[in-house]
Amino acid sequence: MHDFDKAVEGALLIRKVYAYVTKGDHLLVFTQNSLHAGIQVPKGTVESGEEVIDAAVRECIEETGIQSLPPPVFLAQDKWQRADGQTEERFFYHFSCPNLPDRWSHSPSGGGAETGLVFHFQWIGFDRAPLVTGHGDFVCLLQRLV
Which of 66, 107, 121, 134 has its CA 20 to 30 A from that of 38? Predict the structure, then answer.
């Protein structure tokens, strides 16, 4: 077990950050060039010794290619059990980015399982966010921010 992982009731707890990037009342989402990955928001794992808020910024930059981000706003935190039985401690952050293009593609720079992937970004309305399981759990909180 790594020092950044915690045990919860005998199971490994993985810390994850989710980045809700918005442009007005639209949420930034992406698809990728792999089968059955679905529509997602930027997210990733908190690294050993890393502050959660710093992980949110790092993951957002690595996955989107956006180099200049506003300070993130904390939205929510929870514990969530994945279909494989592992438990995640999830942290959701909001980034308001009104001046980004309508669409773009980016090869994530984080390495690992994302090597060779291309993410294709676009904006969708908050109410039309058919995201993969777990990604859209706190989109409803964005309504009060715009």
Answer: 66
